[in-house]
Amino acid sequence: MPSRPAISYRNVTKSFGSLRAVDDVSLDIAAGEFLAVVGGSGSGKTTLLRLANRLIEADGGTVTIEGEDVQNIDPVALRRRIGYVFQSGGLFPHLSVADNIGITPKLLGAPAAEIAARVDELIALMQLDRASHRDRLPEALSGGQRQRVGVARALAAKPRIMLMDEPFGALDPLTRDALGEDFRELHSKLGLTTVMITHDMTEAILLADRIAVMRGGRLLAQGTPAELSASNDAYVLELLRTPRRQVERLNALLPLGGAA
Ligand SMILES: Nc1ncnc2c1ncn2[C@@H]1O[C@H](COP(=O)(O)OP(=O)(O)OP(=O)(O)O)[C@@H](O)[C@H]1O
């Protein structure tokens, strides 16, 4: 028997007024899987993600986490089980790096020495520099460093599931590549289940096991990149063609044997 999904959406719907932000979506995310959710602005990606940790409540359908209906889990307890990384990092500006990372264990009542040890462990895991970063405020960090702190904070309560809303979207391409690869490694090492929203199909193909494509609140397609390329949906095919088209344009513009 296949193991139960880490996250399961069954005919899930969410409207804001007359707008159906998520429209009858059914989707399973297997334990240990890395799923990328792609789609245009306003297609319902963030709403879909936040239905899983009850930052948004569904109007219809069921969302389950490790077999449990989220409606039966206290929202605060649920959010401890699920790490959440915001696009902007979402760090508390008045707290140091260490205090940002340690906030959840602190709220859970962990002893100070245990929190300090966990913070140091996460600083090392996210390849931040303990001596120079630990006591800094977020404003004194680069965008990439802030996102590393955001990931560390989301991991502090040792969640098995990570939800990431365009975590690397605002970064320069080199930092973005490095952070994406580092996180993919961490995902495997820690045995996480990850759902990551991205606008970038290249990032989705390079990092994820499977890709879900949203449009107008509907789940248009889901599958591995190879499975998606067999789709008969014109929008899905267009999204998949974009990375290759970019490579072809780059190949035409950059001389062979050059920096590429
Ligand atoms: N709290 C809200 N109140 C009213 N409308 C909302 C609310 N949250 C989202 N929406 C609308 O629901 C639709 C889906 O929004 P959502 O943020 O899920 O899309 P998205 O695919 O994540 O977009 P983006 O890529 O721009 O972040 C949009 O039309 C948005 O304006």
Give a verbal description of the structure.
Helices cover 41% and strands 23% of the residues. With 260 residues, the protein is of the alpha/beta class. It has a six-stranded mixed sheet, sandwiched between helices. A hairpin with a 2-residue loop joins strand 4 and strand 5 (68-69). The longest helix has 20 residues, at 234-253. The radius of gyration is 19 Å and the shape is globular. The mean pLDDT is 91. Bound molecules: adenosine-5'-triphosphate. Adenosine-5'-triphosphate is lined by residues 16, 19, 21, 39, 41-47.
- Given this structure, which CATH class is correct? Alpha Beta
CATH homologous superfamily (4th level) name:
P-loop containing nucleotide triphosphate hydrolases
- Which fold does the CATH topology refer to? Rossmann fold
Tally of domains = 1
C-alpha geometry: globular
Question: What portion of residues belong to β-strands?
Answer: 15-25%
Return residue spans where pLDDT drops below 50 for at least 5 consecutive residues.
none
Query: What's the main sheet like?
Result: 6 strands, mixed
Instruction: Give the total of beta strands.
Output: 10
Class from secondary-structure proportions: alpha/beta
Radius of gyration: 19 Å
Largest sheet strand order:
6-7-8-3-9-10
CATH architecture: 3-Layer(aba) Sandwich
Function: Involved in beta-(1-->2)glucan export. Transmembrane domains (TMD) form a pore in the inner membrane and the ATP-binding domain (NBD) is responsible for energy generation.
Pfam families: ABC_tran (PF00005)
Family: Belongs to the ABC transporter superfamily.
InterPro entries: AAA+_ATPase, ABC_transporter-like_ATP-bd, ABC_transporter-like_CS, P-loop_NTPase
